[in-house]
Amino acid sequence: MNSAILLSADNIDFMIHELIPVNFFGTTVYITNSHICIAIVMLVILGFGVVAHIKLKHAKEIPHGFQNVVELIVELLGKMVSGTMGKWAPRFVNYISTIFVFILMSNISGIFGLRPPTADYGTTLALAIITFMMIRVNKAKHQSAKEIWTNVCSPLPPWLPIWAPINIISEIAVPISLSLRLFANVLSGTVIMALVYGLLHFIALAWPAVLHVYFDLFSGAIQTYVFCMLTMTYVTQACTSENDA
Fold this sequence. Notes:
Layout: H1 2-7, E1 18-24, E2 27-32, H2 33-57, H3 66-85, H4 89-108, H5 121-142, H6 145-153, H7 164-199, H8 208-239
Antiparallel strand pairs: 1-2
InterPro entries: ATP_syn_F0_a_bact/chloroplast (IPR045082), ATP_synth_F0_asu (IPR000568), ATP_synth_F0_asu_AS (IPR023011), F0_ATP_A_sf (IPR035908)
Organism: Agathobacter ruminis
GO cellular component, one term: plasma membrane
């Protein structure tokens, strides 16, 4: 049975492929299918943004059609950010909305035959590192050195830093856990769909659409929400100090 599966696996493909070699300071690097998919997703988002900007320049008092869609998206994202970040929402709403749309579009791109960019760990790690840097910068900006050290030593007093190594490791683990959670969930769906089409291609006519609805739409939307919610929670905690009312 195992040999039969291996023999049938010629059509299975969920890997990243090197497409175009580029000489970069004497080293050959490659533009991969993952880069192409990221570019396609970004162009779609950019195109939507340009059309929305043009339409809203001539916005009507009673919205309808495309204007309704744009205003609904902006309103929903604004409520999500303000409900989690409170007074800090105006400062971060643009960034959170941007990564929400990018991750969601990347996750659901598998429906249109693309390899989801978030199934590439390089993509999710980059997003997680941005979140990590935002946490560090805002913590340094809004919290004193004494308060940061107290939190590092928590739950024990600052003069007894027994828990400091564990708390430092937990801080460093934030980008790793954020990136791996999103990457693993999206990649698992990509692998399963590749197996379905590769091993069952002769009967995979219409019913895989149900799997696409789950892995690309349902799971993709959940993972997008989780990533953004954790980002907002971590950044809000970094912005909050003892002196805040």
